[in-house]
Amino acid sequence: MTTAVWDYLPEYEAERADILDAVDTVFRSGRLVLGDSVQGFEREYAERHGLRHCVSCDNGTNALVLGLRALGVGRGDEVITVSNTAAPTVVAIDQVGATPVFVDIRAEDYLMNTDLVAAAITERTKCLLPVHLYGQCVDMAPLTALAAEHGLVVLEDCAQSHGATHHGRIAGTMGDAAAFSFYPTKVLGAYGDGGAVVTDQDEVAESLRRLRYYGMEKQYYVTSTPGHNSRLDEVHAEILRRKLRRFDDYLAGRRRVAARYAERLSDTDLVLPAITAGNDHVYYLYVVRHPRRDEIIERLRGYGIELNVSYRWPVHTMSGFAHLGYQAGDLPVTERLADEIFSLPMYPSLPEDLQDKVIDALIEVLATL
Ligand SMILES: *Cc1c(COP(=O)(O)O)cnc(C)c1O
């Protein structure tokens, strides 16, 4: 048996009765799409963020696509973001016909270096798209100030940061709108795909509701194009509602796992995650750094431990984005760190003996590199 960075089965065993009851509730409700569970989840998720609206959809990538479109971002517009992110951030920008513009990250927390954003703004810039990567937030004050000064919209990519806070504010409440993914591995995960956009702006929410429903204003009457069919299924919405009630326990579980790593690995020469001032980390991923990353991963494989790299290839270096015209060396910090970072197993129900197996193996490997 290999130890993986993520596994949902221990959680399913613990919550099985409730998950199956959620499925049964939906299947017996007589309504499989856009029914009570979707409405209930949207209301509860919006409330949790202290916002007026949550519009759910079928995945996080489409949450970004719909979010961009609802904020008026499209062909010819430039969107400033980072290259150290999950590729879907950039796929979504490309999907709406806009051009991603990358700024470098900070070595300390792997997040957007907001000092570089002003210089990246042009006549065509329309949107700032910070990615709250790994579970903590980008420094938002400089971004909202620049957005106000230049008339830009801000869309937060919260796919990795459900429940994270920044100077006391919850991720997803600091821009014009925010996109979430409920992909199973995420901090709040469905049993399949799911996503949502949250916003306080009524018009943006109305636009989102149309966009996810073929561009229809009312049944069978299209008022906006291009439309999408991008709905969250009732069954995932009901499961998400149940899991939302346990959300604080999941965060506590992640923090417990992180604390154990920090305690037992602090004497090694791994660079452990740093929490930036004002942030509360939810540890979607536990990302560490070492110059001999690839050797460490290879040796751990010999112990039956499979580690992950998020992300090995910065988006601007991918062949699919060659048309953007970036060269190796354009984003030096992003490129250097991509060769050194790797992720340790992280999920709330990670059994302690498995975590210790990983820690013991790491300590042994690091001592004999
Ligand atoms: C997971 C993820 C997405 C995409 O979400 P899906 O639900 O997989 O489409 C977008 N951005 C980031 C940062 C992610 O981690």
UniProtKB/TrEMBL annotation:
GO biological process: polysaccharide biosynthetic process
Pfam families (alphabetical): DegT_DnrJ_EryC1
Xref: CDD domains: AHBA_syn
Keywords: Aminotransferase, Pyridoxal phosphate, Transferase
Positions bearing N6-(pyridoxal phosphate)lysine: 186
Active site (UniProt): 186 (proton acceptor)
GO molecular function, a single term: pyridoxal phosphate binding
Family: Belongs to the DegT/DnrJ/EryC1 family.
Name of this chain's protein: Aminotransferase EvaB
UniProt source species: Saccharothrix saharensis
